[in-house]
Amino acid sequence: xxxxxxxxxxxxxxxxxxxxxxxxxxxxxxxxxxxxxxxxxxxxxxxxxxxxxxxxxxxxxxxxxxxxxxxxxxxxxxxxxxxxxxxxxxxxxxxxxxxxxxxxxxxxxxxxxxxxxxxxxxxxxxxxxxxxxxxxxxxxxxxxxxxxxxxxxxxxxxxxxxxxxxxxxxxxxxxxxxxxxxxxxxxxxxxxxxxxxxxxxxxxxxxxxxxxxxxxxxxxxxxxxxxxxxxxxxxxxxxxxxxxxxxxxxxxxxxxxxxxxxxxxxxxxxxxxxxxxxxxxxxxxxxxxxxxxxxxxxxxxxxxxxxxxxxxxxxxxxxxxxxxxxxxxxxxxxxxxxx
Length: 339
Ligand SMILES: [Zn+2]
Fold this sequence. Notes:
24% helix; Metallo-beta-lactamase, Chain A; 339 residues; globular; 2 domains
């Protein structure tokens, strides 16, 4: 048995992880994320890859690795590229739902299974339902570039229109994984180990390929609201006796960190000295930071109002230990022209 590890992103950059682990019989990806640094070399918020070109902009610019048997058929067909009958990988282990680890799953074939934790699944659901981001077909793939015949054809217009609707949507094979339960992908033995990160559901993985024992940390931290998760991961990783560890290292050389409690304390102090409305900004999927500002509002006798996207996430995460939707106010923006 020989193990091979190929890095197609995530080296000398923050995120963009696309790491292929193969032994003689099976092959998986650890994350399939978007590289912000590479993407920013060519695109910006207002200049995005051309959807009309399918996958070719991404392959031309090396934003996606040129690997046979992993990309979706609709995009390949549209660019005149060959689509193999079967996928060349057996699955993707998703460490967490940040774009730099997950977004390019959008481009993968619909028959490649995705393994992720329940909170990651819920976050993906929220992203699909509430964002218009270009790469959000993580759970459900909506086939593009299919035409169907129009029911009524106006004189001089085309007979065809782009096919949309439920029959052109495919649910990807999603496997929700549980903490520390061993599962198999072919003959690769895998265990998911929850870690604390800035959004819920982050997981490290232990992978036994037969001749190597790999620990993949994903993104983790010790200074969040759940350091016990990361501490348990460290203990279990030691017991696993890894021969290889693949780790995120963005802040590996920093020696101090501010924890959520000290953010809550300082923000409470500032807000209590102020009389008017207070507006705060934070990533809405960072539920620990949401909780910090919710606590600040409670500490200073204020009501906490959230937008509709945040409200939807709170509804999905009901029962996961965060404030419930009834604990906050929800503000609904007026439609334009309405006063
Ligand atoms: Zn992350």
